[in-house]
Amino acid sequence: MNRIQLKDQLENYRTPYEEEAEFIQDFIELTSDPLAFKRERLEGHFTASAWIVNKKRTHTLLTLHRKLGRWLQLGGHADGNENLLEVAMKEAQEESGLQSLSMVDSTIFDIDKHIIPNRPHVPEHFHYDVRYLLEADIKEPLQMSDESISLAWIAFDSVVDMIGYNPSILRMLEKTSKSEILL
Fold first, then answer.
1. Gene3D superfamilies given for it (predicted)?
2. Cα(125)–Cα(151) distance, rounded to whole angstroms?
3. Label partner for 183 (CA 20 to 30 A): which of 57, 58, 60, 128?
């Protein structure tokens, strides 16, 4: 996949979630920026994430992010790679050690535009995060990367207690619960 294919997927992406629909056009416009996939684009850039679930759709794998101090899905910067599905798979494997990862679908599962706070040498900026739904074997041992404080499979019914209010995580959880009926 490249930026043209990503733009096509974004143009065809439909969501019933108002907060997501509000920034689809921002994502589409960003695909035409030559620096869109590089963190050197200081006002904001593409990232990719993996919403990882077990095969029975009862748990999701979350990381307690070291820099942000919040429970999040696994993912990271594109660093020039325009194939965001590939980025999501790579980041998920690097951050979890899971070898059993498989994609459920090659289409976009979710998108989120969120602000990253100012840190030394990095100004406040936006992440245009494209998310993909992945599956993994919940019994496979996890290997935490240095980007995490913790890494854990969280039961769907415990996610809210674990993360508090994070609308994008709750949206992905709801989407997973709805797609459960279709599987």
1. Nucleoside Triphosphate Pyrophosphohydrolase
2. 26
3. 128
Cα–Cα–Cα angle for 151, 157, 163, rounded to 5 degrees: 50
Per-residue pLDDT of the chain (183 residues; tens, 9 = 90+): 899 999 999 999 999 999 999 999 999 999 999 999 999 999 999 999 999 999 999 999 999 987 778 899 999 999 999 999 999 999 999 999 999 999 998 999 999 999 988 888 889 999 999 999 999 999 999 988 888 788 999 999 999 988 888 899 999 999 998 664 444
166's CB contacts (< 8 A; 6+ apart) are 70, 71, 72
Specify whether the backbone of 167 is left (phi greater than 0), alpha (psi in -120 to 50) or beta.
Answer: alpha
Compute the distance between CA of residue 95 and CA of residue 25 in angstroms, rounded to an integer.
30
β-pairing, 125-136 vs 102-103, is antiparallel
Q: How far apart are CA 64 and CA 74, in angstroms?
A: 9
**Domain ranges in the chain?**
3-182
